[in-house]
Each structure stands twice: as structure tokens, then as C-alpha cells.
Hints:
Among the domains are: about 5-55, no CATH class; about 135-250, Phosphorylase Kinase, domain 1. The chain is globular. A hairpin with a 2-residue loop joins β6 and β7 (about 225-230). It has 9 helices and 7 strands; from the N terminus they run αααααααβαββββββα. It has helices at about 5, 10-15, 20-30, 35-55, 60-80, 90-100, 115-130, 145-150, 235-250; strands at about 140, 170-180, 180-190, 195-200, 210-215, 215-225, 225-230. By secondary structure, the protein is an alpha+beta fold. It has a 7-stranded antiparallel sheet with strand order 1-2-3-4-7-6-5, with helices on both faces. The chain starts with a helix and ends with a helix.
Amino acid sequence: MQCDEVRPRLDAYIDGELAEDECAPLLAHLADCPECGPEAAALTRLRDGIRHAAPIYRAPEALRSHIRATLRAEAAASAGASRAAPSWLAYAASILVAVAVGSGGTLLVTGERQGDAIASELIDSHLRSLLGSHLTDVVSSDQHTVKPWFAGRSELSPPAVDLAGEGFPLVGGRLDVMAGKPVPALVYRRREHLINLFVLPASRGDLGATLSRHGYSLRHWNEGDLGFWAASDAAPSELAEFERVFRAATSG
């Protein structure tokens, strides 16, 4: 396996979500690669630190059993049938379910806690991007280079606009992973601060406010079928300004 094949799989590997036939070649690559090996070790340390420090909300056994039974019933009903590409609504739901019953402790994700669960996942992804060398997979300020790079790599096509004129230059983009699915992330800079803009299917509600998690800020808004989540250690007012100029550049 090559580095560009291994890096998008690191999160799934560390969370124990990779199939057995994928683990062997990935482990062989990690043992020999001077970049991917230390990155995987850093991610493992980060995961272990979060597990020890972050509060865990364990779902009642009845809820966990109900979720598993529902998933088994759906899988049985669709067995042997050809599937169309999953809808964005199903895509978003799969992220929430995986966050709810994923490894490292089960989160109770109902009602208002859904947004909290996604927020925590995205802050973790933002932190991981600052470790090692996986901030960007494609390095360019040219939207005509960054946007086409995602074609065929993700179900979503992010509007990669350069906002250098407004003080937020485009650095590049990469694929991140949430719930085992590739998630586009655009990277912008605001002076000494980096902004990760994650692109997900639009979710219910347009927060229009900045959330804080562990000293980092996260701002969410929807545009049509896409949901945008900007994560950074920049001030909340900076993220609000980033949202304003991004919306202005992508509207219409």
C-alpha cells in the first residue's frame, strides 16, 4: 500500500473498523514508512488520551439492542437487492449511528445531543489534522485544482473557493474519515490560525452560532444540501466572519 491509500484508512484502523484483509498490508506499510508510522502512533496516543479524559455517556442496553436489531433487519431486507447510491439523509444518519455505537464507549445520541456528538467528532478530526503531515492531500489555492481533486473520492463535492482577498486564503484540501466514510475537508488560513472546513450532508437546523470544545471553536451552517462545519482555534468572531465571506462567495 502507498501513503495516499493508507492515510484515509488510519482512523478506521485505529478504531478497529477495518476488515481483516485490509489490516495486514496497512500494518506492513506502517512498519516501514517514516511518515505514516509516527502519524498512526500519534493518533493512537490522541485516542487513548481522549478516552481517559473525556466523559463517556453510555447508552442504555435497551437502546443499543434496538439499534442493532434495526440494522440487522434493514440488512436482511436489502440482502441480494441492488442498491442505489445512499441518500445524503442516510449518509448523515450513518454518521450519527456510528458515533452512537462506535468503539471507545457508546454515546447516548438523541435529540440535542446529536449536534454535540458531531461537534466532538469534528474537533477530534481537526486536532488529528494538525498532527504529523496529514493537513492536506492536495495543496493549492486554486479552486480549479482543489475542487476536481475530490471527484471520485467523495460522495460530496465541496465548493472550494479561495478567500484570500477577504483574509482567508485557501491552503488546500484532504479527505478525512467519519464513521468509516470519506468526508471532504477544505483548509483555510487566518493569519497564524488554520481553519478546517468539513463538508457533510446538510443536517436539521442551521446553528448560526459558534460552539466551543476544549479551547477550539466550531461553527455550523447549511447551504442547500450541504452542511459546513468550520473548526479552528481562531476566535469565534473570526469564524463568524469566515462564514459570512464564504456564504457570500458561494451564494448564487
